[in-house]
Amino acid sequence: MGIKLRSLLLALTMAGTLGLAQAQGVRPEVGNPLKQAGELLRAGKAKEALAKVRDAEAVGGKTAAEQLTIDRMKAAAAQRAGDWPTAIQALEALHAKAGGAEQGPLAEQLASAYTQQRNNTRAVEWLNKALAAGHNSATLKQLQSYLQSVSGDFAAVARDAAAAVAAAEQAGRRPDEGDLLRLADAQQRTGNSAGYANSLEKLLQYYPKKDYWNAYLSRLPRKPGFADRFALDLLRLRLASGTLSKTEDFMEMAQLSLQAGLPAEARGIIDQGFKAGTLGTGPEAGRHQRLRDLALKQEAEVKSGLAEQAAEAEAQPDGDALVRVGYAQVSMGEVDKGIALISKGIAKGKLKRPEDARLRLGMAQLQSPKTRAAAVQTLRAVKGNDGVADIARLWIILGAN
Predict the structure, then answer these.
(1) Distance CA 105, CA 107 (A)
(2) Which residues have C-beta within 8 Å of that of residue 357, sequence separation ≥ 6?
(3) What is the pLDDT of residues 119-155, one digit of tens each?
């Protein structure tokens, strides 16, 4: 993953420095160039501002107040100009004279400046001084994580990031995306596969970006014990999360849906592929059209025989057939009728895979405004170590976003 150092550095303009040319006890020959430096700094001309600071510094017989004002402006201008040795010299001079409230922020700036120089040993020293002074800003936490990672202490990164995530959740706040990314990265580097999966899931929950969906769905089928029968479910999740984009994936999903006795679902997938231009073009366009024709033909056949299939399912000693027919009905747009059949099948019992049936019920309930609230409860109740519970949780996340 990696955290760019630039994002860790303070975007500061030393509060109060721009008007310090007027400060009490500062002579005009010192104050005027500092005032000009402040104006140049505001205009984004940091190097020119630093030159003006040096003009003020060249004045002889400076008082302590004048030197303090010069050091403040020098620190601001040097950091903006990327002149880290000069910035460090000014910041260390300021820290030596600073009161308690200023010591923490100044130590943080010094830690950032030494990090920019790749002097991580000194950066850690100043970071610890900032923490000891009671300063614990979000930027300092990011810098701490960065320094831990470059030192290879990923266990510490994971510990600190996990604490930040837990604190946010306990306070009813959305955890910071950066904390979750640092936690996931550290868990992956330390071989904590379960923790990494949990952090990815939290990223999906709080920041449902396509990159995170791709990362999670790519690793899920490699999870120990994950059942091959959920291949179609993985593609359904990709379609719903907007991460299904390849022609071969659309074709595979449509074919798996046909094999599952869900031609209406297959036809819908193919239609989406044609609309997106993923299907219906190129040298395989004829094959795509033939698959579409097959799906339409089978959809008509299934629809015409659905009532008969439901009656036959009712007569079965177990509920599996009712669940299967009910989900086919859902796929054809008759959601409420399909939910009723699936529920009846679950109630009948003697199911080959009860958790799969509950998953289908929850997925169906998500499609009806009448049952969306009940869907979350249904999906949360799905248990199992073969992937069924993982898929159920992902549908909860998709249903909430």
Answers:
(1) 5
(2) 319, 320, 323, 342, 345, 346, 351
(3) 988 988 998 899 899 888 888 888 888 888 887 888 9
CATH (one of 1.25.60.10, 3.20.20.240, 1.25.40.10, 2.60.120.10) for 5-141: 1.25.40.10
State the amino acid at position 334 in one-letter form.
E
For residue 23, the model assigns a pLDDT of 47
Q: How is the chain split into domains, by residue range?
A: 5-141, 155-207, 228-400
Closest alpha carbon to 111 in 137, 72, 73, 77:
137
Rg of the chain taking only CA atoms, in angstroms: 31
Nearest to 251, CA basis, from 216, 281, 227: 281
Counting Cβ atoms within 10 Å, is residue 214 exposed (0-12), middle (13-18) or buried (19+)? middle
Task: Report yes or no: 299 and 332 within 8 Å, Cβ to Cβ.
Answer: yes
Length of the chain: 401
pLDDT of residue 150: 84
Answer yes or no: are the C-beta atoms of 32 and 53 closer than 8 Å. Answer: no
Distance CA 314, CA 320 (A): 10
The SS3 assignment for 365 reads helix
Q: What DSSP line would sit under 136-202, residue for residue?
A: --HHHHHHHHHHHHHTT-HHHHHHHHHHHHHHHHHTT-PPPHHHHHHHHHHHHHTT-HHHHHHHHHH
Give pTM, 2 decimals.
Answer: 0.70
Return the ∠ at Cα 105 (arms to 104 and 109), rounded to 5°: 115
Instruction: Give dist(CA 22, CA 34) in Å, integer.
Output: 9
**What does the pLDDT average to over 173-178?**
94
- Two tokens, residue 172: 């009813």
Q: Taking Cα atoms as reference points, which of 384, 331, 333, 326 lies closest to residue 355?
A: 384
Q: What is the 3-state secondary structure (H, E, C) of 92-137?
A: HHHHHHCCHHHHHHHHHHHHHHHHHCCCHHHHHHHHHHHHHCCCCC
